[in-house]
Design goal:
Helix content is 80%, strand content 0%. With 467 residues, the chain is an all-alpha fold. The radius of gyration is 23 Å and the shape is globular. The termini are far apart.
Length: 467
């Protein structure tokens, strides 16, 4: 027997993903805003003059309250539900952009970016919702949609800031944030969250509305939810802590991958592309390089859903990291040969290598590092754990942005480039020996494979000893 809305299932999954992905679009705005903001404020006639220390504080200020936003996201998401949570996420975003748009001093810019950090932190749990509404067939491609919006936000920011004054761009973001907030009213509540809250009938109705598949398929997913909750601690503080502690292994794995990803140079190039390009002393326009770098990342993100749909996770991660490694090697070799030379032949090699680096990172490494834990965390505490993961992510990001200018002054740029290469190679090893394969598996199958494999092995060994 078929459900009457069979045709619209995939369309609904995509539609809900597009709505919540506006949160990631705003995260891209915030992370891409700083680079061109500094460039515009350095131009003659600027009403706000910043020194290097003030720029460093603003660049790192987003990370001050981002961890708080991440922790808040997990708590609010698990208590009040996914739909209400995403509506609330846009409130600090709107306040932040209004503050920045009205800024006439360093202090107002700093406060605006600090508030922006709350919104960025809260947006980190977007993948939690996607993992819960996405079917096994399309979940990877839907994750890829997150990369499209995140990178598109950064690309749009760079394009706007290239042509429009920074305060006018902030007003544009106010309007986009208001639109995004009210569009979340169209979301469907997560069936998994409804089931974990004891609202089984609501969960079944939501799943039927979402899947547009045969009734047996819906029954199987409900059966998976029941199976996944057997023997789990009750929804108390103690039970929640037990489930959180149970997830230490996927949490540690996700943290390790995101740290390697940030140390490939992705975070530094996002925050200081003009500074890095100027330090390489190439006879090319640094502002144009920054714009093209963002566009290359946006193109890579557009390709991400198709790559997630066609490739398994390990192949996707290792191949994109390998391309990034080749790019950093090309830059490193070029700088080793021509750094001291006043005449820089074939100087296009460096920006082209960085463009390919941006394309590959946004098309693979960034996306998988962002979403891998979401598929593995237990559903009862997925929001909380993903919030903690996001907090660690933004702390790392903030530290990197804070210390990077000083690092550039203390360490030769060539050494930094070779360190990027080492981290790219480490990601290849990570994908080969550590990353679990989740493509094409339901969340329940992933849970069984990841958490029960060791238990089964131990049981087999014990059985053999007893015999």
């Amino acid at each position: 027997m078929k459900l009457p809305f069979q045709v619209s299932g995939a369309v609904k999954e995509v539609s809900y993903t597009l709505i919540v992905s506006q949160v990631l679009l705003a995260v891209g705005y915030g992370r891409g805003y700083v680079a061109f903001l500094f460039h515009q404020l350095d131009l003659p006639g600027s009403q706000i003059i910043l020194d290097d220390e003030q720029k460093s504080r603003i660049a790192g200020s987003i990370g001050i309250l981002s961890p708080f936003g991440c922790i808040l996201s997990g708590t609010l998401m698990d208590i009040f539900g996914r739909k209400l949570y995403f509506f609330v996420t846009f409130i600090p975003q709107i306040i932040s952009w209004v503050t920045i748009a009205l800024a006439n001093s360093y202090d107002m810019l700093l406060y605006g970016m600090i508030i922006q950090g709350i919104s960025l932190g809260m947006g980190f749990s977007t993948s939690t919702y996607i993992s819960e509404i996405g079917s096994a067939t399309y979940r990877g491609a839907l994750f890829g949609g997150l990369a499209v919006f995140y990178s598109s936000g950064a690309m749009l920011c760079n394009i706007l800031m290239y042509f429009i004054a920074w305060n006018l761009v902030a007003w544009i973001y106010v309007g986009l944030s208001v639109f995004g907030m009210f569009s979340t009213l169209l979301l469907l509540e997560s069936p998994i969250w409804l089931y974990n809250k004891g609202r089984k009938e609501d969960a079944i109705r939501a799943l039927c509305s979402l899947r547009a598949t045969n009734i047996d398929g819906v029954k199987n997913e409900i059966g998976d939810m029941e199976k996944n909750n057997v023997g789990k601690p009750k929804a108390s503080f103690v039970g929640t802590m037990k489930n959180v502690l149970k997830a230490w292994k996927p949490f540690l794995m996700a943290i390790s991958l995101q740290l390697l990803m940030q140390l490939t140079g992705y975070t530094a190039l996002f925050g200081y592309p003009i500074l890095i390009f100027d330090r390489l002393r190439l006879p090319l326009n640094s502002s144009r390089f920054t714009l093209m770098y963002a566009i290359a990342g946006g193109i890579g993100a557009v390709c991400a859903p198709f790559l997630m749909l066609k490739l398994n996770r390990r192949t996707h991660l290792s191949s994109s990291a390998a391309v990034m490694a080749v790019c950093t090697i090309a830059v490193g070799v070029y700088e080793e040969i021509f750094y001291q030379s006043d005449d820089k032949p074939l100087s296009f090699i460096v920006p082209v290598a960085f463009y390919i680096f941006s394309f590959s990172c946004n098309g693979g490494v960034l996306l998988i590092a962002y979403t891998v834990g979401t598929e593995l965390y237990p559903s009862e505490v997925k929001g909380v754990i993903n919030g903690i993961f996001g907090a660690v992510y933004y702390i790392t990001w903030s530290v990197i942005l804070k210390v990077y200018p000083a690092l550039l002054n203390a360490v030769h740029i060539k050494i930094i480039i070779w360190c990027y290469t080492g981290c790219c190679l480490a990601i290849i090893l990570f994908s080969t020996f550590i990353l679990p394969e989740t493509k094409g598996k339901t969340l329940n199958e992933v849970q069984e494979q990841y958490f029960q494999k060791k238990k089964k092995k131990c049981g087999d060994k014990m059985h053999a000893v007893m015999e």
